[in-house]
Amino acid sequence: MISFAGVGKSFGDNHVLRELDLDVAAGEKVSIIGPSGSGKTTILRLLMTLEQPDSGLVEVDGELLWDCRNDVGAADTRRQAAVRRKIGMVFQHFNLFPHMTVLNNVTLSPIQVLGMPREEAEQRAVDLLQMVGLEKHLGHKPGQLSGGQQQRVAIARALAMRPKVMLFDEVTSALDPELIGEVLAVIRDLAHTTAMTMLLVTHEMRFAEEISDRVLMFDSGAVIESGPPSTIFENPQHERTQRFLKAVLERK
Ligand SMILES: Nc1ncnc2c1ncn2[C@@H]1O[C@H](COP(=O)(O)OP(=O)(O)OP(=O)(O)O)[C@@H](O)[C@H]1O
Ligand SMILES: [Mg+2]
User: Is 202 in the pocket of ligand 1 (CB under 6 A)?
Assistant: First the structure.
């Protein structure tokens, strides 16, 4: 479903990704862990076409998103947008439209981008908001909700576009500790009940262990260790992974 082949990305002299190869199968749930600045968010931003790679290929669902050899992506923005629409993303900061109701935040893109009739978009939004436990808040503005509630709206909003792939970037790290659980519960439910492909960057190790088919340990722009969660968390092979997990777990 997702394939990176030889992808490089630099910001000036900062070589963030080096010849990255990464494949995620359809339906697979993959967590990315690793130290700050190692390039985790950059991977997700390349998939969202918020950044452009310097080298390599990126494919999504069998279609080219980026091909630096042939300038695919930069040259053909309409075709690229169609590929990009298969992907939904939830960010650390919810980025909801503050002046719009919860319901309108969720229906906006289906109506404007997919051309869905309003009635159908609203019915679907109500179903999704029910799924994330917010059916009582349809008419509220984001500012009237807690951080955890806003993040659940952001998840519903991404799902409203019927993506094949969902990306989550540290979606709980801006939340108060007591609100983290309700957001993780929604994602856990999605992971366990849908066939969507999921790529998550997270510092919630217990959560990653529970929902992932595979965990990737990232350092300095490369995958240094990859395996089932039981191996990565209980028996990490790489010294860098051991050091990282020790530091993260001690911080808790
Ligand atoms: N738009 C940008 N311009 C310049 N440098 C950038 C830009 N985006 C990211 N970087 C740099 O690229 C490196 C990787 O950033 P990235 O956000 O991918 O790291 P990360 O692994 O997600 O870190 P964190 O765990 O702190 O979120 C960092 O050194 C960062 O400063
Ligand atoms: Mg990041």
Answer: no
